[in-house]
């Protein structure tokens, strides 16, 4: 199974030829901004390409790999491991929203652990649950390692509502306690002043020091 965003069978080479200069040039090849001497030649040097064999010889080691190759290997392990297979994954929905690509993104949270989930737009109409922050759900899907960002996500196929999540329950309990104490009663609330009684402006520490001398 190939995860979304994966790039398989990438040649064992590394090149900087396709990288654009990070500095504005305005029609010439000389950057118009000051840069640290360590990086002053970025974007002006000729492209350099290193073969894996050359790096192994230079670094005196056979255990050398590139980032894309490592990510490809991680994706294979994550997506093909039987011990990571699950029928449903249960957790509380957090940070749920729809991206510019019309995908639903959210996190599943349980205790101190979090994993990102993605629901593609064409599957959203097939899911009977309106995902929202605070609800506890069981999602069905597959693990996918996004090589471009080096992150693991669950590609959701279905979701089942379980109940209110732990954090939502805590919020409702706290709200009920405040209501019983009368702290949320509109009659006891004090309106915000239209004009603050006092005002001030922040000063830099050096300016304050000069003023006190």
Structural descriptors:
single chain, 213 residues, alpha+beta, OB fold (Dihydrolipoamide Acetyltransferase, E2P), 5-stranded mixed barrel, 7 strands, 23% helix
Question: What does this protein look like?
Answer:
The protein has 213 residues and is of the alpha+beta class. Among the domains are: 13-65, no CATH class; 86-167, Beta Barrel (OB fold (Dihydrolipoamide Acetyltransferase, E2P)), CATH 2.40.50. The protein is built from five helices and seven strands, in the order E-E-H-H-E-E-E-H-E-E-H-H. The protein has helices at residues 52-59, 67-80, 121-124, 166-180, 205-212; strands at 13-15, 49-51, 89-98, 104-110, 113-119, 135-146, 151-164. A five-stranded mixed beta barrel has the order 3-4-5-7-6. It has a two-stranded antiparallel ribbon with strand order 1-2. A hairpin with a 5-residue loop joins strand 3 and strand 4 (104-110). The longest helix has 15 residues, at 166-180. The N and C termini lie far apart (70 Å). Residues 5-44 have low confidence and may be disordered.
């Amino acid at each position: 199974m190939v995860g979304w965003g994966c790039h398989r069978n990438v040649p064992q080479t590394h090149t900087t030829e396709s990288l654009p200069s990070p500095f504005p040039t305005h029609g010439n090849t000389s950057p118009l901004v000051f840069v640290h001497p360590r990086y002053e030649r970025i974007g002006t040097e000729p492209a350099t390409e290193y073969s894996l064999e050359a790096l192994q010889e230079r670094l005196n080691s056979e255990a050398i790999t590139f980032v894309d190759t490592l990510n490809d290997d991680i994706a294979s392990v994550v997506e093909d491991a039987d011990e990571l297979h699950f029928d449903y994954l249960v957790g509380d929905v957090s940070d749920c929203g729809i991206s510019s690509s019309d995908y639903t993104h959210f996190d599943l949270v349980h205790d101190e652990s979090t994993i990102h989930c993605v629901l593609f737009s064409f599957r959203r109409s097939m899911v009977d649950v309106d995902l929202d922050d605070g609800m506890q759900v069981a999602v069905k899907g597959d693990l996918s390692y996004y090589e471009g960002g080096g992150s693991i996500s669950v590609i959701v196929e279905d979701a089942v509502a379980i109940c209110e999540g732990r954090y939502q329950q805590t919020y409702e309990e706290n709200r009920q306690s405040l209501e019983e104490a009368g702290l949320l009663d509109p009659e006891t609330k004090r309106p915000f002043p239209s004009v603050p009684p006092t005002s001030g402006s922040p000063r830099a520490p050096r300016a304050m020091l000069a003023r006190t001398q």
